[in-house]
Write a structure and sequence with these properties.
globular, alpha+beta, four-stranded antiparallel sheet, NADH Oxidase, 2 domains
């Protein structure tokens, strides 16, 4: 148990929160597996929708670790890339007839096109570890919110360990993909998914810039 004062604890937490950034460039060497376990444990401690999941005899959250260069990465990468192509095709067709969507989604459409042209999904094969987290579906459907809590915990722990961290948000679209779910040995449509990549960052990023709290806060009476 941490024995520091409240001020010391808050100073450490404030520093980790301020240093949390999205890293997309990683060094090739692999961090120790025990540190990856520490990141996963942080995710396991994250809040979850207990009322939605119910009293399942099987635990509600699962973690799947894929190491760069492994057979699992080689199998997962083309499946996710195929989903990128599918998403891009659907978005392209919808943008043809929906002017509002065209204006709103142009940035995302350009990012999908960039990924297609590069032929590499950022975070899958570009970082030492790709981690997929699965959250059991329940009712109401709040699994994605639980996964967001889980990712934030893992992100903060990775930051505290000096690792880079990148969300691989396209992972959420793979929850209905039979081949991807077979790779994880879970049933399609029973779990929601989210993914992240982690490893040693190849560069230091500047601090993130946020407005002063008072600029974005209203105290209501």
């Amino acid at each position: 148990m941490c024995t520091g004062s409240i001020e010391q604890k808050n100073a450490c937490l404030d520093q980790v929160l301020a240093e949390r950034r999205s890293y997309r460039m990683f060094r090739p060497e692999f961090p120790p597996e025990d540190d990856i376990r520490r990141i996963i444990h942080a995710g396991l401690l994250a809040p979850f929708a207990a009322g939605a999941v119910g009293n399942a005899s099987d635990y509600f959250r699962r973690f799947f670790v894929m190491k760069n260069g492994s057979q699992s990465i080689a199998a997962a990468a083309p499946l996710v890339m195929a989903e990128i192509h599918h998403m891009a095709e659907i978005l392209h067709e919808e943008m043809k007839t929906n002017l509002g969507l065209r204006e709103q989604a142009i940035g995302f459409a350009q990012r999908l096109a960039m990924i297609k042209n590069r032929g590499i999904v950022p975070g899958i094969g570009t970082a030492p570890y790709y981690i997929v987290v699965a959250e059991r579906r329940g009712y109401p459907h709040v699994q994605l919110q639980s996964l967001a809590h889980c990712m934030e915990n893992m992100w903060l722990k990775a930051t505290a360990l000096g690792f880079g961290f990148q969300l691989v948000s396209v992972t959420s679209a793979m929850s209905q993909n039979p081949e991807f779910c077979k790779l994880l040995q879970i049933n399609p449509n029973e779990w929601e998914l989210m993914g992240c990549a982690t490893g040693y960052p190849s560069e230091e990023l500047p601090p993130s810039i946020r407005p002063p709290v008072d600029n974005v806060t209203r105290w209501l009476e």
